[in-house]
């Protein structure tokens, strides 16, 4: 089932997510709905707060990035078919040089800005079967994971912008929170009675 994506301004996007117990009700169904919602919106990642749930769950599928001809063949291979569910994730370490990349967010449509992040991330999490993993990723994979991880910490990519850039985006962000935007997917706006 395709769920509405929560828009900028909703308090749920600012909550630090709570851990999921291994008997979390209807987890399989929730994860399937999140995949369907993300693909419908042409996203490469989606976190539970973006569908209104303040829990530590996000999904990533970087396959669309693998078609980018500006990337090396090795990077394209790394991104192609990378599809994972991250539950109760904790970033253990972020290392390497910071580099800028234009990021966007399904909760903040039509805004893309350069965000600096460290190149490499080590993350611990459990998958949908509650099997524990600790893995290290770099490049675009690390970036997508860092972006989605921020969501379960109540952080948005716009928080990482300069004060000047934030001021320049203020009216656009206010319009998003009021529902004065057209997205190609279902959204739920904080300042409207019903999503549209």
Q: What key attributes describe this structure?
A:
single chain; alpha+beta; two-stranded parallel ribbon; iron; globular; 5-stranded antiparallel sheet; 196 residues
> Considering DSSP H and I runs of 4 or more, what fraction of the residues is helical?
25-40%
Average per-residue pLDDT, rounded, comes to 95
H/E element sequence: EHEEHEEEHHE
Q: How would you sum up the major sheet?
A: 5 strands, antiparallel
- Total DSSP helices: 4
Instruction: Give the strand order of the largest sheet, numbering strands 1, 2, ... along the chain.
Output: 2-3-4-5-6
CATH architecture: Alpha-Beta Complex
Shape annotation: globular
CATH superfamily: Peptide deformylase
User: How many structural domains does the protein architecture include?
Assistant: 1
Q: Uncertain runs with pLDDT below 50, 5 residues or more?
A: none
């Amino acid at each position: 089932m395709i769920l509405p994506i929560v828009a900028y301004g909703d308090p749920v996007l600012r909550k630090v997510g709570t851990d999921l117990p291994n008997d979390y009700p209807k987890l399989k169904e929730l994860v399937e709905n999140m995949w369907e919602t993300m693909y419908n919106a042409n996203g490469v990642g989606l976190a539970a707060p973006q569908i209104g749930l303040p829990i530590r769950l996000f999904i990533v599928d970087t396959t669309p990035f693998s078609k980018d001809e500006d990337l090396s063949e090795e990077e394209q291979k790394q991104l192609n078919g990378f599809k994972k569910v991250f539950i109760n994730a904790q970033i253990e370490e972020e290392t390497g040089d910071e580099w800028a990349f234009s990021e966007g967010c399904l909760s903040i449509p039509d805004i893309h800005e350069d965000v600096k992040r460290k190149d490499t991330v080590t993350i611990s999490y459990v998958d949908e079967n509650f099997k524990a993993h600790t893995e290290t990723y770099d490049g675009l994979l690390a970036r997508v994971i860092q972006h989605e991880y921020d969501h379960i910490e109540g952080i948005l990519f716009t928080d990482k912008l300069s004060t000047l850039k934030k001021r320049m985006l203020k009216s656009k962000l206010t319009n998003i929170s009021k529902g004065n935007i057209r997205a190609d997917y279902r959204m739920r706006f904080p300042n409207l009675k019903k999503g549209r």
